[in-house]
Write a structure and sequence with these properties.
Strand content: 5-15%
Helix content: 55-70%
Order of helices and strands: HEEHH
Radius of gyration: 17 Å
Number of helices: 3
Largest sheet: 2 strands, antiparallel
Strand order of the largest sheet: 1-2
Number of domains: 2
Structural class: mainly alpha
Number of strands: 2
């Protein structure tokens, strides 16, 4: 997996366009351009609320995002633990 800025930005934009995210759309040019277009109004409203709250509570919002990622990583790792039944 490459971690160059171009590779990271490509993966990030791909992930934001795909599936559950549904936050961006892009044109099909060789050098694509992206536009903010949430898949539905409820997602748009949630992102608008997040954008409004972020400047006044950056630390809490960052912790929420990172805690969720950590919990998911722990759940994945727990799936491989041997348990006594």
């Amino acid at each position: 997996m490459a971690f160059s800025p171009d590779a990271v930005s490509h993966r990030t934009s791909r992930d934001l366009r795909r599936g559950a995210a549904g936050i961006l759309i892009s044109n099909t040019d060789v050098s694509p351009k992206y536009r903010f277009q949430p898949r539905d109004e409820s997602l748009h409203a949630a992102l608008r609320d997040l954008a409004a709250a972020y400047p006044s509570d950056v630390i809490a919002i960052s912790n929420l995002i990172h805690d969720a990622a950590t919990r998911n990583a722990h759940r994945f790792a727990d799936a491989f633990r041997l348990r006594k039944d």
